[in-house]
Please model this.
Amino acid sequence: MKACGTVHKYGDNVDTDVIIPARYLNSSDPNELAKSCMEDIDPDFVKRVKKGDIIVANKNFGCGSSREHAPIAIKASGISCVIAETFARIFYRNAINIGLPIIECEAAAKEIEAGDTVEIDFDSGMIYDKTKNTEYKGQAFPPFMQKIIEAEGLINYINQKV
Amino acid sequence: MGMTMTQKILAAHAGLETVQAGQLIEADLDLVLANDITGPVAIHEVEKLNKKTVFDKDKIALVPDHFAPNKDIKSAEHCKCVREYAKEHNITNYFEVGQMGIEHALLPEKGLIVAGETCIGADSHTCTYGALGAFSTGVGSTDMGCGMITGQAWFKVPSAIKVVLTGKPSKWVSGKDVILHLIGMIGVDGALYKSLEFTGDGVAELSMDDRFSIANMAIEAGAKNGIFPVDEKTIAYMEEHSKKKYTVYEADEDAVYDEEYTIDLSKLEPTVAFPHLPENTKTVNEAGEVKIDQVVIGSCTNGRIEDLRIAAEILKGRKVCDGIRTIIIPATQDIYMQAMEEGLLKIFIEAGAIVSTPTCGPCLGGYMGILASGERAVSTTNRNFVGRMGHVDSEVYLASPAVAAASAVTGKISQPSELGM
Model:
């Protein structure tokens, strides 16, 4: 499986309140949440984002609240993958559980810039910056998490067991 | 190799003799929690599971607290969704408006969680129950929903940071100052994926309410959980509030920690986290002149009876500064009632503050005290992110109830000593 798109770049500690502000949490509809995605950090994001685009950020992406609405909003906005130096742990779990691909890679997070075209090969964990002509090796998921991803999320994984 | 306290609890719940950091396990759960924001997403997800029945109707807690009492029609629909699911599945611990409180103050008070147990909750501040010596962590809605059906969750066994507390805090220093100081030291990702294990002689000097505040904000350092050893105060609390059998786990002498920090409680000063991260801490002495528009005293971090007593001690016989909106929110109905019986509510109202029914409300910018552009609040809540309490150009300063109450009187960030206390 591959993803390819234009990069939207952010810094450290992008929290779930700026990914989807709580004032919109009276909805749980993915398409409605997507309309306000990143609103408090990047008001033009929803106008710019195209299907397949990629978010690249530095450390502790998704810190703060446990709201699954955050990865749901990102996925529904069309983003195909989030690359970060590190992810906050609840966001990390939530992304896997809802099937939003995420990759930890310090070098890629530091060097890739906004507007670059980036391709990701999820099978190998390789990240290619086609604008800069550079490549990075992202951290692969442990086998246990790969099983959840292969099942396309935790719900299907459990349905296979129970 | 020795195990940390957290690792021992996880091993016992995974049916394993030992576990080590990094190991992936599936653990049995003693309590699974959701609220009116995360519950509907979880309920919608579990409809896709083949198994429809919950694993144990007594081990699930559903608490509408974030936007309840219903703040608008959409929130009313969410609360209705949770209410109907609770009724359909005969969930014992559903708390309707009238019984409900802010979940992380309510569940320990109702005795639903005790030492040695495991809990997941679809709310990041579920780590609060580590104060009781339980393993407790926040998850998303899908994890919560699956836990509610299967009674299990997967975990990567965390490594740990040891936090040794020594000495006795001075009069106006509370648990909130301890955790803000620690987050200031290690940063908002300083404990990412790890446990924060508190230990040392200083623990005995902290009340249970102090410990709840500290464990509550472990997530603000990125931690998976924060946990306290079980002592006489813990046991007295559990015996007062719960009929459940508790189990005391202690870290092994040779447990391995990634890092170790020591905090001398006697040297701590009232502390404030400046916008827009909980790690931006300064002592009130270093804060300078910061004028404010609003004070909030409440939340799962600081809406307990001791917090209200401290605020009342400062506000008694004083007036809230002209133009400062001061909003006080007891975290549960029992705390509200106790504050009423002790005369605290009268003190607040006479001082010019308002007292609200329990709700998370303004903490996450829901309702009951939203900030306009350019406004500043001193708040006893737990997050000061951009736009957290309202407009994207508003600011939240996190502090203890003592600092919040003193600031309400002066109209700027202040500590009780500035009032001659």
User: Anything to note?
Assistant: The first strand of chain B starts at residue 24 and ends at 28.
